[in-house]
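Sample intake sheet
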Amino acid sequence: MKRNYILLSLLLLTGLSSCKKFVETTQPRNELAADLVFTDDKTATAAMVGLYSNMNSFNYFYANVLMNYLTAMQADDMYYYTGFENYDVFLKNTLLPSSQYVQSMWRDQYSYIYHANSCIEGLTGATALTPSVKNQLLGEAYFMRAFLHFYLVNMYGDVPLITNTDYVANGVKPREKTALVYDQIITDLKEAKSLMADNYPSGNRVRPNKAAATALLARVYLYTKQWPLAETEASDVLRNNQYALLKDLNAVFLANSREAIWQLMPVNTALGRNTWEGFTSTPATPTGTPLFRLDTTNLIKKFEANDLRLANWTGFRKLSSGATVYFPYKYKIRTNNGAALTEYSMVMRLAEQFLIRAEARIQQDKLEDGRADLDSVRIRAGLTALPTSLDKSALLLAVEQERKVELFVEWGHRWFDLKRTGRSNAVLQPIKSANWQATDTLYPIPSDARKTNIHLSQNDGYK
C-alpha cells in the first residue's frame, strides 16, 4: 500500500503544507492516491522531491541539527552553552532508550525509508512516465534507501533492513546483521548509479545524481575496508569536471558551489532564513553569544597554525568573563532580510572524496599517492605539504587529523571516523572520563520501537 508519504508529497506540490503529520486513511483512498501520483512526470517528481523537504523542513530535524550537531557532541567537536538534558545525553554519552532524539532519529529515518520504498514500488509499476524521468526518480529512491540505511547502521549497529512497504511484516522484523545491511546498501547504490543521470535534473545540486551515488559508494567501501573499490569510486568522482575544490573557503557552502555533490535546498525561509544550520549556530547579534559552541581544547586547538579553515569556518565571541568561545561558521547567513537564498545545506562534498581516496591508497601502501590527496586538501587550507618521510601509521593519523578539521560538525563524520577506525576509546575516554564506556559507540535501540516490535534486541550497555 502507498501510505501517507505520497499524500504528503502532493500537499508539498500544491503548497498546502510542508509539515503535515501522518494521517491514516482508508486503504482504497491510499491506493487511489498512489495510482494518480505515478501517472504524471510532475506528480511523480513531487513524490520523490517531497522526501528531501521532509528531512529539512524545520529546525532540530534529521538533516540539520540532529545529524550535524548532536553527533558532533558525541565526538569531541561541540557542546551546548548551558545544560540541557536532550543534548547533554549526547555530550556525556548517557543516552537512554527513551532519550527523545534517539527515538526520533530512528523513527524519522525509517519513515523516510518507507517514503523511498513507496516511490520505488510506484515508479517500478508506472507506465506513463517519460523514461528518463522514471529512471532518474527510481535512482534517487534507491540512493535514499541506501543513504538512510547507511546512517542507521552506523548509529544503531544491526538494524531491521526494510526494502518494501509491507508495514505489517516490517513491524515485526528483527535486526539484520550489519554486513548484510551493507550488502543491500551497495546493491542499491549500484542500481542508483545505473539509473541516474550525470547532470542534476533541476540544474541545482539539490537532488542526487550519479556522482552522489558514486561518492556514497566510495564512502561505503571505505567503511567496509574494501580499499581498492573505495579508491576507484572516489577517483570517478574526482575526475568529474563538474566538481572542484574551491580556493575560497567562504564559497564552499554557497548554493550550487562547485564543491557540492549534494545539497538540500532550504524550504522554510520565514523570517529571512537561509539554512537551519546558519540560523541555529550564528549569534543573533554582533555581540550575541552562540548557543552551540565548538570545543576549544579538543577542536579549536587542534588546528595547525595558519589553517584557513579556522579563520573562515569558525567564528568567536568574547564573553564578559574574558573567555573566548567559538561557534561553527561554515554557514554565514542567519537571516538575509528576504533576499535570495545564497546558501544551501551541504550533505556531500568533494573534499571528502580526496580524503576517502587518500585513506584507501595509504591502506594499500600507495603512500605517495595517498599523501598527494591529503596535500590537495591541506594546501587549499593554506597549509604546507606533508613531509615525505611519514610512514603508513603516521599518514593514517594525518588522514584522521585532516578529516577532523575539514569535516567538523558535518553529518557525523568525526563520530563515525572514530568508531570505524577503532579509535573511540583512545580519543574519547580521556575526554568523557567516567561517562565513557566502549558500548557508547552505538545508540540504544529506542524503547518505543521495542514496545511495538518484540523481536528487536537491545544493544550492549543499555540492558
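Comment: Residues 131-156 form the longest helix (26 residues). Residues 1-32 have pLDDT under 50 and may be disordered.
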